[in-house]
Design brief:
With about 600 residues, this protein is of the alpha/beta class. Helix content is about 40%, strand content about 15%. The chain has a seven-stranded mixed β-sheet. A seven-stranded mixed β-sheet has the order 10-11-12-16-13-14-15. A three-stranded mixed β-sheet has the order 17-9-18. The chain is globular and about 85 Å long. The two termini are about 50 Å apart.
């Protein structure tokens, strides 16, 4: 490289550094998030979570050209890609609790019931999610200590938690922005504003076409409307841009650890399948967000960051139980028990834009405070307009203490069934004695792949031969229920662990699976997760090439916790050196 060319590159570097300093410094000051100057020499990390993307579906997306940024990171030798086992249940709360706090014990699914308290738990209402975090985090330090959390269920001990359920209402993105500060947000990011509007309009046209095309897809028809799709899409696109902007601002500030979760792919894929065109387009949009984050990570280097891109679980192609057999799982169980039984069945429906709309509504409520009367009236009108167009979520209106004789809690292809004849967990033998007709019908039902429970306190499965205790180290002959899974011993160990949870069901049912990786789902989903079978159990991690990390022996999300705690732990300090801001203390596994 010639002397002149080196000087030109140095000049470009200096101009870029000046530009980013002016841009992000001004924005951070206006938002009340000033630059952090302490311990910028210590290496930090960024976790980008792509919710629901299986390892094999990532490879397919790469082959089709939908994730060029991730492909570039691999081809350039900057990153490595590995498949890992997230463990059972294959759900976001279990995985995030495991990675962030090293503890997902007694997180049986996305929904469950606690017989001893008569309490239904679903990981949606912030108050319940906070309770779950307090339990799993007790006595443990999170990997995000001193850092930032975006759009997560749990905050990982983060100092700043935005759009995070366990820290709902603690912080707001625009809480310190006043008057001219909003103008600066647009002036410093004009291209982001134009791109957001263009992408929103383009996705709106795509959505309209998709709704028309759905009339030729039996069982997946979408109602044709003009207003609601536009609202949903602009909310999703705007929210995604806000999240990315927040991460980029944190990189400028030198925040030591950042976790941002992008859930758009998961929401869409539940409806259209993991490799549906709409799901892959959502994935391409997320890849563009990763490109922006990676670019500023490389260009603005006051702190060196390791970039991790991972998924919490995969998605298996599925067919709803009701579509196959004409009733929900709970309705089928109730029919075997007779008309006198009081059934309490709960399962969720995925609503596009529900989650980002809730977060943005919370932002609008916060922005109303401390404004002029005219501004408050305008913001209130905008908030009410949004509230009228948000699809209501029935689960958020549940009476969490209402229950019946039989409780069914379904999460994907995993369901927990509780019998309220006793507040204590029941053995399989007790269930079989009290409900012999039900047990017989479940055993012969083609949509049920496995019946799991307890036998004198030991994990066991129910088969036509009777009750068999689970032995992960045992033989898995061709007649064994787990024999068709790719890793029967791994599956048996995970099933035994879930059956040991105090708040797992008296019966734990898994939807049937086949060798193609397709499963029967207890919710209205065409791609699901939560149980066993197919890609749902095998997410991916893309990690820095210089990190020596063997993921072949990982069988549960808890094991990833120790990697972050040990690699990014606090170094010993001396009186002459400043106390560094860290992401947690090391723990011995």
């Amino acid at each position: 490289m010639t002397w002149f060319l080196r000087r030109i590159l140095d000049l470009v570097d200096a101009l870029a550094h000046w530009y980013y300093n002016r841009k992000y410094g001004t924005l951070a000051e206006k938002m009340g998030r000033s630059q952090r100057l302490n311990a910028l020499g210590q290496r930090g990390f960024i976790v980008i979570q792509i919710d629901g993307l299986a390892h094999e579906h990532l490879l397919e997306a790469m082959a089709r050209g939908y994730v060029p940024t991730l492909q570039r990171l691999l081809n350039s030798g900057q990153a490595r890609l590995a498949r890992w086992r997230c463990g059972l249940p294959s759900t976001t709360p279990a995985v995030q609790a495991g990675i962030m706090f090293g503890n997902n014990w007694d997180v049986p699914s996305f929904r469950w019931y606690e017989k001893d308290r008569g309490l239904s738990v679903v990981c949606k209402p912030p108050a319940l999610v906070k309770q779950v975090q307090e339990r799993v985090a007790a006595g443990r330090e999170g990997i995000l200590n001193g850092g930032s959390s975006y759009v997560n269920m749990f905050d990982g001990g983060a100092r700043l938690s935005l759009f995070t359920l366990a820290a709902w209402g603690r912080h707001r993105f625009f809480e310190n922005v006043r008057g001219f500060g909003f103008v600066l947000l647009f002036l410093f990011s004009p291209w982001r504003v134009v791109r957001t509007l263009f992408v929103s309009f383009w996705e709106y046209l795509r959505d309209l076409w998709g709704r028309l095309a759905s009339y030729w897809r039996p069982g997946r028809r979408q109602r044709f409307t003009l207003i609601r799709p536009f609202f949903q899409i602009i909310v999703n696109v705007v929210f995604r841009e806000i999240e990315t902007f927040g991460v980029m601002l944190d990189i400028y500030r030198g925040v030591p650890c950042i976790w941002a979760n992008y859930f758009g792919y998961d929401e869409v894929a539940h409806h259209v399948g993991p490799l549906g065109r709409e799901a892959l387009r959502a994935l391409r949009g997320l890849d563009k967000q990763i490109r922006q984050i990676d670019r500023i990570r490389r260009q603005y280097r006051r702190r060196e960051y390791d970039l991790y891109v991972l998924s919490d679980h995969g998605l298996s192609p599925s067919t709803p139980f009701r579509a196959l057999y004409g009733s929900t799982l709970g309705e089928y169980i109730a029919a075997q028990l007779g008309e006198a039984v009081a059934l309490d069945e709960r399962w969720g429906q995925v609503h596009h834009a529900r989650k980002p709309a809730d977060f943005l509504l919370e932002e609008l409520r916060g922005m109303e405070m401390g404004r002029s009367k005219r501004a408050q009236a305008l913001l209130r009108m905008l908030r009410r307009w949004m509230e009228e167009r948000v699809v209501p979520d029935p689960e958020l209106g549940w009476d969490m203490e209402r229950h019946g004789d039989v409780i069914v809690r379904s999460s994907g292809s995993l369901a927990h069934v509780y019998f309220n004849v006793t507040p204590s967990p029941m053995d399989l033998s007790e269930v079989a004695i009290l409900y012999p007709e039900l047990v017989a019908r479940l055993l012969e039902h083609p949509g049920i792949g496995l019946i799991l429970g307890r036998d004198d306190g030991h994990p066991a499965i129910l088969t036509e031969r009777g009750i068999e205790r689970l032995a992960p180290e045992g033989e898995f002959g061709p007649e064994h229920p787990l024999a068709t899974l790719p890793e029967p011993a791994f599956a048996a160990a995970q099933l035994a662990r879930v059956a040991s949870f105090p708040h797992s069901g008296d019966l734990i049912l898994l939807g049937a699976w086949n060798e193609k990786g397709e499963v029967v789902c207890f919710e209205e989903q065409w791609a699901s997760h939560g149980g066993l079978g197919g890609p749902q159990d095998y997410p991916f991690i893309l990690y820095p090439a210089h990190v020596n990390w063997d993921l072949s022996q990982v069988t549960n999300a808890e094991q990833l916790y120790y990697h972050f705690m040990e690699r990014y732990s606090q170094p010993s300090s001396t009186p002459s050196s400043p106390q560094p801001q860290t992401c947690g203390r090391s723990r011995t596994p």
